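sorry for the late reply, my laptop died twice this morning and i had to redo everyting from scratch. anyway the thing you sent over, i finally got around to it. pasting the sequence first so we're on the same page, its 289 residues, then the predicted structure underneath. double check i copied it right bc i was rushing
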Amino acid sequence: MNLWLTACAAAGIALTASAYASAQENPPADPIPLWPGTPPHDHKDGFIPTLTPYLLDGDAPRGAVIVAPGGGYEGRAPHEGRPVAERFNQAGFHAFVLDYRVSPNRHPAPLSDAARSLRLVRSRAAQWRVRPDKIALLGFSAGGHLTASLGVFFDPGEPDADDPVARESSRPDAIVLCYPVISADEYGHGGSFANLLGPDASEEQRQALSLEKHVRPDTPPAFLWSTADDQAVPVQNSLAFALALRQQGVPFEMHIYPHGPHGLGLSPDDPHIATWSELCADWLRGMGW
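ok and here's the structure:
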């Protein structure tokens, strides 16, 4: 199943009245290019990866959530971007939407963009009134794979770099995985891995990004949710990652809803599944966001 087609079909979901009102009162800032020049590992397709801030008013520093939409690493689903940022604004957090590179760009271009987004927010924490130790990365589907990738492949930054952004750590303080692509094994989503690595990727390359195999003890705390009968990205992806977190002693919260198709986003048509965003907000608040 093509995740990008699924995302496009779902992208016509209207904002709720409260989300629409919030957007009108507090529109996002302009997108900010992630890189000062040509991004590393660039395919030269002309796409400029950006970060769009959704900042709340007030002087007190707040926790933040960076949102990575899904789309099978061939696009970025609109309904998994701005509406989600606005929802977390309503929950009391600053938010950002990450427009990362996708096919024909290959790994590690998307991961470089995700890491840069964490570093950029940390480097501007004082300007944006963000708590630099309370920055979560949230991703849907392939964006969930990107989020989990940074959760296991982050680095502390380069303290001697000329670029002040590059000096910051790329480790998220929490990761939120929404029906994520995780595994390259039996239950993996082949299209996502083909777009990320190329159609002729070796099994060694695929296993290097089968993320349940790379969880480490300092992987950030995680919140996961999926549906049990997701036909595009089976729930086994979330279960495998949760088991790896448990084996490494990493705290997590997981919710498996019994029914629902892939690509639900905020799930405005199913009030039960829609509880995930408030559950996630409560989880973040419990960690000091």
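The CA atoms of residues 6 and 120 lie 31 Å apart.
thats about all i looked at so far, will dig more tmrw
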